[in-house]
Write a structure and sequence with these properties.
By secondary structure, this protein is α/β, with parallel strands linked by helices. The protein is built from 13 helices and twelve strands. Helix 5 packs parallel to helix 12 and helix 8 runs parallel beside helix 9. The radius of gyration is 25 Å and the shape is elongated.
Length: 334
C-alpha cells in the first residue's frame, strides 16, 4: 500500500505542499479556514508526517530523552507525569528509556538518544559508566541528573541527599528511645546503598554500630518482599524494636507481617518507610515516612530544560537541593 504524502494532502486541500507544511508546523500562523481545510484533508487521508525527513531538514527534533532505572516502581510515576505534563504541553515528545538499574544499559540508552538527536537528556541518577559520562559532558545539549546530589555534576543536578535522608529516618527512631533498629531493603541500588550508609552513620553516632540488623534480598521492592523480609528476620531470632524500610511498599508488607505474627505496630515494633507514597497516610496504622519531592523534581527538570532550549544554549552548571521531609505518623508515634 502506497504511503500518503504531503503532496496528496496538498492536492485534496487545494493548496501547495509548502502551505500544508506551514499549517502543520505553525497552525496559529495561518487563517482558521485554511487550517480547517488542511486538517480535514489530513484526517481523511490518514496522513502522518515523516518526522525523520523533517529532522533532516531542521536542527530541531522536538524530542527529549528521559532515562529511569525501572518502570516497575511507582516512585517514578509522579516524576514522569510531571515531565510529560510540562514537556508535552510545550510541544515536545518525551522518549522514556528503562535502564533496568544497569549502568551499561544506561550507556546504551544515552548513545541511542544522542543518535536520535534529542534536544536534552534527563536522567534519574548520578552514577554512570566513564564513557557515558564522557558522552554527556561532550554533548552540546542540556543534561539533568535527578534524585541524588552529585559531588561532580555533569550539567544540572536536581536532587537530595539520600544518605542524610537515611540518617534522618534512623535518628527519628533513635530519638524515640529505640536501640535495636533493623534496616530492610530490596535491591541495593546506589540510592538504597546511600540510605543504608545513613542508617549505619546514625547507629554508629549513637554508639550502636554493633547492634545493627540488616534484612536484604536482591529483588524489586514490593509489599510481598517486605512481608517476606520481616518473616525471615523473625524466624532467625532477630527481634528489633524498630524498623527502617528503604521503601513504603516494604514498610507496608512488614506491618502486615507484624499483624499476622501478633506484633503490634507501634506498640511492639515501630516502622518508618521512605518516599511517603499516597497510601502511607491511609494505612492502618498510618505510616511514618521520609517524603521525597518526586513531582517537584520532574517539574523543575522540565523547566530548566525548556529554558535552555529557548535560549539555544547549554545551561550553566547548577546544583539544586530539593531536600526531603520527615513525616511522623502513627507507626512510630505510639
Amino acid at each position: 500500500m502506497r504511503r500518503i504524502t504531503l503532496d496528496d494532502v496538498a492536492r485534496l486541500a487545494g493548496v501547495s505542499p509548502i502551505t500544508v507544511s506551514r499549517v502543520l508546523r505553525k497552525p496559529a500562523a495561518v487563517s482558521e479556514g485554511l487550517r480547517l481545510r488542511v486538517d480535514a484533508a489530513v484526517r481523511e487521508l490518514g496522513y502522518v508526517p515523516n518526522l525523520a525527513a523533517s529532522r533532516l531538514a531542521s536542527s530541531r527534533t522536538h524530542s527529549i530523552g528521559v532515562i529511569v532505572p525501572t518502570l516497575y516502581n511507582v516512585i517514578f510515576a509522579e516524576y514522569l507525569f510531571a515531565l510529560h505534563e510540562a514537556l508535552v504541553d510545550a510541544g515536545f515528545q518525551v522518549i522514556v528509556v528503562n535502564s533496568r538499574y544497569s549502568e551499561t544499559e544506561e550507556e546504551n540508552a544515552i548513545k541511542a538518544l544522542l543518535g536520535q538527536r534529542v534536544e536534552a537528556i534527563i536522567i534519574a541518577g548520578i552514577h554512570h559508566t566513564l564513557h557515558a559520562r564522557q558522552l554527556l559532558v561532550q554533548a552540546s545539549l542540556p543534561v539533568v541528573e535527578t534524585f541524588e546530589l552529585s559531588p561532580d555534576p555533569i550539567n544540572i543536578n536536581i536532587g537530595m541527599s539520600q544518605e542524610l535522608a537515611g540518617r534522618t529516618a534512623t535518628t527519628h527512631l533513635l530519638e524515640r528511645g529505640f536501640q535495636k533498629i533493623a534496616f530492610l531493603t530490596g535491591n541495593l541500588d546506589h540510592r538504597a546503598q546511600s540510605r543504608m550508609d545513613g542508617y549505619h552513620a546514625a547507629m554508629e553516632g549513637a554508639g550502636l554500630s554493633g547492634r545493627t540488623i540488616i534484612a536484604q534480598r536482591a529483588s524489586a521492592s514490593s509489599v510481598a518482599l517486605g512481608s517476606a523480609l520481616f518473616a525471615e528476620m523473625n524466624e532467625r531470632g532477630d527481634s528489633p524494636e524498630a524498623i527502617f524500610c528503604t521503601d513504603d511498599n516494604l514498610a507496608l508488607g512488614a506491618m502486615q507481617e507484624c499483624r499476622k505474627r501478633g506484633f503490634r505496630v507501634p506498640g511492639d515494633i515501630s516502622i518508618i518507610g521512605f518516599h511517603d507514597l499516597e497510601f502511607a497516610a491511609c494505612a492502618s496504622p498510618s505510616l511514618s515516612s521520609i517524603a521525597t519531592r518526586r513531582y517537584e523534581t520532574g517539574k523543575l527538570a522540565a523547566k530548566k530544560v525548556l529554558a535552555a532550549i529557548e535560549a539555544s544554549a547549554k545551561p550553566a552548571d547548577e546544583q539544586i537541593d530539593l531536600g526531603f521531609g520527615l513525616v511522623v505518623r502513627e507507626s512510630t508515634s505510639g
